[in-house]
C-alpha cells in the first residue's frame, strides 16, 4: 500500500487516543444493512506499480496513435506540436497539486498565471475581458447563450447551421430544461455560408445569434454584417472558435463586433486526449458585461504592504456565494489546461503564433490542391484556414474514413459521423492539416483516398 | 508530510514597523529563495519566440476569404529558457500537496500518485482523437467501460454516465436525468430540496435546471432534519439533493428513511458524492436508495486538482434514471467489441436527455483514476476510507478541548472534522486562524463553510498523511487557536511570511482590473 503512510502501530495508537476499539467503531453511524464486510467483489486486489503499468500499457496498445500514421482529423479537436517545456511546467507539483486559489497569499503562482491567461485570451479574441476558463468549447457555447439571455432578458437563440453539431446539441439539451428556444439549422453544403439566411432568422425576441468562425466546414466569412443585424434587433453576437491557432492568421471576432467570444483552447498546450480534459475559453468585448459572466475571474490588487498581487474577484456572481442566484453552477474549471495554454502561448508569442498559423495554412493549401486532383474529389470551400471540406463525388464518406483507417491513414472526419442520417451531408469529408502534417502524409492520403474511392460503391 | 523542524530555529515574533522581518531591504525586492517575478507582458517581446517555425513568406497565396489579420494581436513571447524560468519562479509562490499538509475540507487534497501522470501520457491515450474510427480506439473505449463498471461496483448502482466534466457538471447530469424522468410521465415538478449545509453548486445546479430551490433545516446534531423534510415532501417535490457523508463530516444515518419517503411521493434522491472518499469500499450508496450520485475523480480517485481543475464527474444512476443518461456512452457487444452509443442509435440510446459536452468526457482523468484503482485494488480502497476517517477523528479529538467542535458529541466524524470560532478573543476570527496557519507552513482548512456553523473550519486530512505529519499539524493548529482564544492582536496581520500579505479584495472587486493594460 505504497500511498498509505499509516502503520498498524500508528493506527492502534490513534484509535487509543480517539477512544475507539476498532476502526469499524468510527463507522457506527452507517446503518448495518448498508455496511460492507470484507473486500469489494468484482475488483482485483492491490497491485505494484509495475503490474499496473503493464495493464495500462496493454490497453493503450489497442489504440492507433495519431502521431504514428498520416493523420487529418479535426472537427473541434486539433493535433498540434506541444513544446516539451509545456509538460515540464505543468508537472511541477506546485501547479499540479494546488487547489483553486482560495488563499491568495500562498497561491500567487496560479493567480498570476490566470491573469496572464485571461490577458492572452482577451487579446487573441479581440475582447476586453476573458474568464479563467470553463470545461470546454461546447459547454462554453451554452454558457454564452445563457449569459445572452440574462443580458437581453430574451429567451430565443439563433444558431448558425454551420455551428459544430455537438455544440448545437449541448445548447439544445440545456435549453430544453431552461425553457429557452433554440432555432437551429442544418449546414448548407455551399462554397460560401448563407449569412443572409442567418440574418433573416434574427428577430426582436432574439437574445443572441451564434456563429462559428471558421465554421464547421472550415469556411471563413466576415461576420460584421451579422453583428450589425444582431445589434439592430437588440441581440448579441456570440462567436464560437474551435481552432485558436486560426486567430494568428485571421481577424479576431471582437474586431468584427462579436459581443461574446467562446471557444475551445485545446489546440494550444493540451493535446488530443480522446476529447478531454479540454479548455473552454470565454470572453466579452464590452467590460460592462463582466458581471454577467460565468466562471472564475482573476483580478489585480495590492497586499497590505502595497505590493501588486492577484486574487479571484467578483465572486458574488458565483455559486459558492450566490448559490441559486449564481450566473453558473461551475466550480472546478480547467486550471491546469489553462496553464498549459498560457505556457504554449508564451513560447509562441505574437511572432510564433503568426508563423504557426501561416505554416498551418500553407500546408492546408498544399493539401487542398493535391486532394482536388484525386478523381471524383472536389474541394467545397472558397476560403479556409487549416481545415476544409471535400466532396467525394457521391461516395459515402463514413465508409471511406473507415476504409482509410484499415489502410493505415486517419483521413478526416466524415459529415456522416457528425450528422448521422442526413443524406445531403453523407458525401462530405472534413480534412484538417496542421504543422504536424508532412507533405508525404498528404501524398499518402491522396493516393489512399483515390484507391478507396475506386473500391467503394 | 511536514517534517518536524529540528533545527531549533524560530522566526522572531518582533517585527519592524513595516511588519517585515528585521533585516536590511534588498535592491531587487527578492529575499533569497523568495523571488519576485514580473508579469509576462512586462518581460516578453513582440518579436521573440521560443518555438522554431518557418519564416512567413509574404508572397505566399492565401485563401483566408479576405480576412487576413492586419492588426497586431498584442501577444508577447519568451525564449524557452526565459519561459521555463518565468513559470518556475511563479510556481514557487504556490502551495501544493507536494509541499505539505493541505487539509482543505470537502476538497480532498490527497497525494497524486505520479504513476497516474505517467500512464495518462502514454501516446495510446494522450494522442488519440475523439472522433477517430472506433476500431482504432478500442483500448480507450475499454478504459471508459472498465472504469465505469468499477464505479458501478463500488457504488452498487446499475448504470453510470461518464461524460460530465467535473462535480458540478455531474450534478447537472443527475438533475437533468431526474427532470427528464418526471417529464416522461408528464409530471411537471418545480421544487428541489437542498439542506443548508450543501455545497453552493447544489442550489446553483437545481436553479440552472429551472427548479425552485428550498432549504431543508438541520438538526442540532448536524444532520438533515428528517421530520422537517418529511413535512415538506409532496407532489411538487422533484428531488432532494443530499451530500453523504455531509459537509459537517457526518454520515446521514437516516438516509435510507429519507430516500424511502422521497420515493413514496414520486421524487428522486440525488446524492452529492463529493465525500465518497470517506466510504468507498465500506458502504454502497446504491443500498441507501440513491437515484443519482456524482463521483469527483479528482477527490476520491486522486486525479490532481491542478490549481482549479480539470476535474471529472461521472454520475452513477439507478434503474429508474438510467434510460435518461446523456450521450454518448460506451457499450460492449457479444463479440467483445466496444462501441459508442450516439444520437443516431435510436433504439439503443433510449429516451436520453441529450448531450452535455462535445465528446466523451475527461479521458485524461479516466486513465489516472483507473490507474489509481488498480494500484489500490479492492483491499486498498477500503483501507483508504478507513485511514481517511481515522485521521480525521484523531484531529477532532486532539482539538476538541480547546476549539469549539459543534458536532463532536454526535459521535465519530467521517473524513473531516468541523470546528467553529466560538470564544475567540479580541475580535479575532476564523480568517485570522487560517492566515496564522499559513505562517506555520500549512495550507489552511476550508473556512466559512458549511454555512450552518459560525466561523466554520473544516479540516480534512485525507489518508495520505502520516501520524507524524498530523501530530505536527495538531501542534501548530493548537498554538494558533490558543493565540486566537487569547486575542493575540498580531494574528490579525498574518500572514507575515507568505509571498504576499493580506490582499485588498474589496478594492479588487470595486475597480476590477482583469487583464494587463499597457
Automatic annotation (TrEMBL), chain A:
Molecular-function GO term, any one: glycine dehydrogenase (decarboxylating) activity
NCBIfam families in the cross-refs: PRK00451.1 (NF001696)
Family: Belongs to the GcvP family. N-terminal subunit subfamily.
Enzyme type, top EC level: oxidoreductase
GO biological process, one term: glycine decarboxylation via glycine cleavage system
Catalytic activity, as annotated: N(6)-[(R)-lipoyl]-L-lysyl-[glycine-cleavage complex H protein] + glycine + H(+) = N(6)-[(R)-S(8)-aminomethyldihydrolipoyl]-L-lysyl-[glycine-cleavage complex H protein] + CO2
Glycine cleavage system P-protein N-terminal domain span: 1-448
Keyword Oxidoreductase in annotation: yes
Gene name as annotated: gcvPA
Chain's role: The glycine cleavage system catalyzes the degradation of glycine. The P protein binds the alpha-amino group of glycine through its pyridoxal phosphate cofactor; CO(2) is released and the remaining methylamine moiety is then transferred to the lipoamide cofactor of the H protein.
Subunit architecture: The glycine cleavage system is composed of four proteins: P, T, L and H. In this organism, the P 'protein' is a heterodimer of two subunits.
Known EC number: 1.4.4.2
UniProt keyword list: Oxidoreductase
Protein name: Probable glycine dehydrogenase (decarboxylating) subunit 1
UniProtKB/TrEMBL annotation, chain B:
The Aminotransferase class V domain, residue ranges: 185-306
GO biological process: glycine decarboxylation via glycine cleavage system
E.C. designation(s): 1.4.4.2
Keywords: Aminotransferase, Oxidoreductase, Pyridoxal phosphate, Transferase
Catalysed reactions, as listed in the record: N(6)-[(R)-lipoyl]-L-lysyl-[glycine-cleavage complex H protein] + glycine + H(+) = N(6)-[(R)-S(8)-aminomethyldihydrolipoyl]-L-lysyl-[glycine-cleavage complex H protein] + CO2
Described purpose of this protein according to its UniProt entry: The glycine cleavage system catalyzes the degradation of glycine. The P protein binds the alpha-amino group of glycine through its pyridoxal phosphate cofactor; CO(2) is released and the remaining methylamine moiety is then transferred to the lipoamide cofactor of the H protein.
Domain (Glycine dehydrogenase C-terminal): residue spans on this chain: 386-482
GO cellular component, one term: cytosol
The UniProt record lists the keyword Transferase: yes
The protein's name: glycine dehydrogenase (aminomethyl-transferring)
GO MF terms held by the record: glycine binding; glycine dehydrogenase (decarboxylating) activity; pyridoxal phosphate binding; transaminase activity
Stretches for region Disordered: 1-23
Amino acid at each position: 500500500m505504497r500511498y498509505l503512510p499509516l502503520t498498524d502501530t500508528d493506527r492502534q495508537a490513534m484509535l487509543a487516543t480517539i477512544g475507539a476499539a476498532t476502526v469499524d467503531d468510527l463507522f457506527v453511524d452507517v446503518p448495518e444493512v448498508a455496511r460492507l464486510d470484507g473486500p469489494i467483489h468484482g475488483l482485483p486486489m492491490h497491485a505494484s506499480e509495475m503490474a499496473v503499468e503493464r495493464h495500462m500499457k496493454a490497453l493503450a496498445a489497442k489504440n492507433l496513435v495519431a502521431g504514428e500514421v498520416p493523420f487529418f482529423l479535426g472537427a473541434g479537436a486539433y493535433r498540434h506540436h506541444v513544446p516539451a517545456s509545456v509538460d515540464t511546467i505543468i508537472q511541477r507539483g506546485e501547479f499540479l497539486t494546488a487547489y483553486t486559489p482560495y488563499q491568495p497569499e500562498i497561491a500567487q503562482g496560479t493567480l498570476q498565471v490566470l491573469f496572464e491567461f485571461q490577458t492572452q485570451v482577451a487579446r487573441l479574441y479581440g475582447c476586453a475581458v476573458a474568464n479563467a476558463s470553463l470545461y470546454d468549447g461546447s459547454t462554453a457555447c451554452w454558457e454564452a447563450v445563457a449569459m445572452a439571455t440574462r443580458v437581453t432578458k430574451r429567451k430565443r437563440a439563433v444558431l448558425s447551421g454551420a455551428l459544430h453539431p455537438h455544440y448545437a446539441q449541448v445548447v439544445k439539451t440545456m435549453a430544453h430544461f431552461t425553457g429557452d428556444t433554440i432555432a437551429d439549422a442544418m449546414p448548407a453544403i455551399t462554397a460560401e455560408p448563407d449569412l443572409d439566411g442567418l440574418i433573416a432568422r434574427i428577430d426582436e425576441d432574439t437574445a443572441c445569434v451564434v456563429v462559428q468562425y471558421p465554421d464547421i466546414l472550415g469556411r471563413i466569412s466576415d461576420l460584421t454584417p451579422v453583428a450589425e443585424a444582431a445589434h439592430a434587433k437588440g441581440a448579441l453576437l456570440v462567436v464560437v472558435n474551435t481552432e485558436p491557432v486560426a486567430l494568428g492568421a485571421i481577424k479576431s471576432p471582437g474586431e468584427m463586433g462579436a459581443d461574446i467570444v467562446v471557444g475551445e483552447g485545446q489546440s494550444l498546450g493540451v493535446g488530443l486526449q480522446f476529447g478531454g480534459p479540454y479548455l473552454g475559453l470565454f470572453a466579452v468585448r464590452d467590460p460592462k458585461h463582466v458581471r454577467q459572466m460565468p466562471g472564475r475571474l482573476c483580478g489585480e490588487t495590492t497586499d497590505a504592504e502595497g505590493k501588486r498581487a492577484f486574487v479571484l474577484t467578483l465572486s458574488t456572481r458565483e455559486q459558492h456565494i450566490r448559490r441559486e442566484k449564481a450566473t453558473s453552477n461551475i466550480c472546478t474549471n480547467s486550471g491546469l489546461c489553462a496553464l498549459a495554454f498560457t505556457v504554449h502561448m508564451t513560447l509562441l508569442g505574437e511572432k510564433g503564433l503568426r508563423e504557426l498559423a501561416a505554416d498551418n495554412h500553407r500546408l492546408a493549401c498544399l493539401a487542398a490542391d493535391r486532394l482536388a486532383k484525386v478523381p471524383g474529389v472536389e474541394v467545397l470551400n472558397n476560403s479556409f484556414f487549416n481545415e476544409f471540406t471535400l466532396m467525394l463525388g457521391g461516395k459515402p464518406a463514413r465508409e471511406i474514413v473507415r476504409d482509410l483507417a484499415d489502410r493505415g491513414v486517419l483521413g478526416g472526419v466524415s459529415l456522416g459521423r457528425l450528422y448521422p442520417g442526413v443524406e445531403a451531408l453523407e458525401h462530405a469529408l472534413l480534412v484538417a492539416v496542421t504543422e504536424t502534417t508532412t507533405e508525404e502524409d498528404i501524398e499518402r492520403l491522396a493516393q489512399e483516398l483515390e484507391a478507396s474511392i475506386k473500391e467503394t460503391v | 508530510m511536514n517534517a518536524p523542524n529540528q533545527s531549533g530555529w524560530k522566526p522572531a515574533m518582533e517585527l519592524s514597523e513595516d511588519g517585515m522581518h528585521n533585516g536590511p531591504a534588498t535592491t531587487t525586492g527578492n529575499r533569497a529563495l523568495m523571488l519576485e517575478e514580473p508579469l509576462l507582458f512586462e518581460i516578453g517581446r513582440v518579436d521573440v519566440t521560443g518555438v522554431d517555425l518557418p519564416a512567413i513568406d509574404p508572397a505566399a497565396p492565401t485563401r483566408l476569404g479576405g480576412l487576413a489579420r492586419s492588426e497586431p494581436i498584442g501577444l508577447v513571447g519568451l525564449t524557452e529558457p526565459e519561459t521555463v524560468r518565468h513559470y518556475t519562479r511563479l510556481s514557487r509562490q504556490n502551495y501544493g500537496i507536494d509541499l505539505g499538509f493541505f487539509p482543505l475540507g470537502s476538497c480532498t487534497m490527497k497525494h497524486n500518485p505520479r504513476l497516474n501522470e505517467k500512464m495518462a501520457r502514454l501516446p495510446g491515450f494522450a494522442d488519440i482523437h475523439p472522433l477517430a474510427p472506433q476500431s482504432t480506439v478500442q483500448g480507450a473505449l475499454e478504459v471508459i467501460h472498465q472504469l465505469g463498471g468499477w464505479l458501478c461496483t463500488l457504488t452498487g448502482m446499475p448504470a453510470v454516465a461518464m461524460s460530465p466534466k467535473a462535480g458540478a457538471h455531474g450534478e447537472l447530469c443527475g438533475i437533468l436525468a431526474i427532470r427528464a424522468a418526471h417529464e416522461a410521465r408528464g409530471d411537471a415538478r418545480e421544487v428541489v430540496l437542498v439542506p443548508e449545509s450543501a455545497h453552493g453548486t447544489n442550489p446553483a445546479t437545481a436553479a440552472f435546471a429551472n427548479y425552485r430551490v428550498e432549504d431543508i433545516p438541520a438538526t442540532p446534531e448536524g444532520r438533515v432534519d428528517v421530520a422537517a423534510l418529511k413535512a415538506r415532501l409532496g407532489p411538487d417535490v422533484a428531488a432532494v439533493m443530499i451530500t453523504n457523508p455531509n459537509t459537517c463530516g457526518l454520515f446521514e444515518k437516516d438516509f435510507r428513511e429519507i430516500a424511502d419517503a422521497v420515493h413514496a411521493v414520486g421524487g428522486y434522491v440525488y446524492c452529492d458524492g463529493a465525500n465518497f472518499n470517506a466510504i468507498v469500499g465500506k458502504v454502497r450508496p446504491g443500498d441507501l436508495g440513491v437515484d443519482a450520485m456524482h463521483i469527483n475523480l479528482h477527490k476520491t480517485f486522486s486525479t490532481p486538482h491542478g490549481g482549479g481543475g480539470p476535474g471529472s464527474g461521472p454520475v452513477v444512476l439507478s434503474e429508474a434514471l438510467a434510460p435518461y443518461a446523456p450521450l454518448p456512452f460506451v457499450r460492449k457487444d457479444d463479440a467483445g467489441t466496444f462501441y459508442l452509443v450516439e444520437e443516431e442509435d435510436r433504439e439503443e440510446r433510449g429516451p436520453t436527455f441529450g448531450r452535455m459536452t462535445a465528446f466523451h468526457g475527461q479521458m485524461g482523468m479516466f486513465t489516472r483514476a483507473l490507474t489509481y484503482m488498480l494500484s489500490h485494488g479492492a483491499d486498498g480502497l477500503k483501507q483508504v476510507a478507513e485511514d481517511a476517517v481515522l485521521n480525521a477523528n484523531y484531529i477532532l479529538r486532539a482539538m476538541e478541548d480547546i476549539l469549539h467542535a459543534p458536532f463532536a458529541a454526535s459521535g465519530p466524524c467521517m473524513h473531516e472534522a468541523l470546528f467553529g470560532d466560538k470564544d475567540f478573543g479580541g475580535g479575532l476570527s476564523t480568517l485570522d486562524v487560517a492566515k496564522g496557519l499559513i505562517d506555520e507552513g500549512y495550507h489552511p482548512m476550508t473556512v466559512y463553510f458549511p454555512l450552518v456553523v459560525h466561523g466554520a473550519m473544516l479540516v480534512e486530512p485525507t489518508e495520505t498523511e502520516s501520524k507524524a505529519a498530523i501530530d505536527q499539524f495538531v501542534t501548530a493548529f493548537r498554538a494558533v487557536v490558543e493565540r486566537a482564544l487569547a486575542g493575540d492582536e498580531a494574528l490579525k496581520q498574518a500572514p507575515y511570511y507568505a509571498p504576499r500579505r493580506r490582499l485588498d479584495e474589496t478594492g479588487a472587486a470595486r475597480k476590477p482590473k482583469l487583464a494587463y493594460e499597457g
